[in-house]
Specification:
Largest sheet: 7 strands, antiparallel
Order of helices and strands: HHHEEEHHEEHHEEEEHE
Number of helices: 8
Radius of gyration: 21 Å
Oligomer: single chain
Helix content: 25-40%
Strand order of the largest sheet: 3-4-5-9-8-7-6
Length: 247
Amino acid sequence: MMGTSPRRIFLSVLSSTFIAFAANLFGITSNLLSALPESFVEKSGLDSFYPRGDYKRVIVRGAAGQGKCSFVIPKDWVADTSLALAQAQRRAKVLDYSMSLSDQFGVLPDAAYGPPGKTDQQGLSNKETNVSVIINGVKDFTLRGTLGSDPNAAAEILLSSKFGPRRPTTLISSFEEQRGENNIPIYQFEYTVDRGDRAPPLHAISVIGGSLAGDAFVTLTVVSLDSAWNGQADERLRQIAKSFKLV
């Protein structure tokens, strides 16, 4: 490189490095993040832009800004476009006072993700597999004060026909845990849903918690066919639920 100054060479290398990092060229950024401690990467926020290993981080908050939560999803999963459409339609209907929202839409999640196409790399069905988050604005909510100190009893109440999926459910397990820097308590429970003769049973994990300010009740649910909960697919589904926390 006769006639090329060391400064120009340095700037060229620096620029190439930045471009490769910003574009995740050849997976360089993802590989670098995988080598760093998860807590450090999460604080930096980089794992919400680039995958860290097999997962990427999602941050969701309520419409009024309350109930902010985070969790990871498989890096090949995508946002549910039908949810975005339904949310847009709901916002439009608010302006039409002649129509009843309750007649047009049920409860819409604040966010939902699932495998792209018909199946993902582990064979999980896009139709039956997803994770969704619902954030309800409330006043003075506390997990124990509102739902009681027994996570098993809380699960039974939430899975009852009055609040739950309105189909026979079988509770498998439930527990309480503290997560995140603020040690916010959550209840997690695992269950199956019997859909009768019309479809194979579903298997789900729900995680519930209240915001630190007590102004939101947040529920994450990851669901797939009962038969899908095995091997690597089982590990991916459980990692989503395990990673959920209020932030």
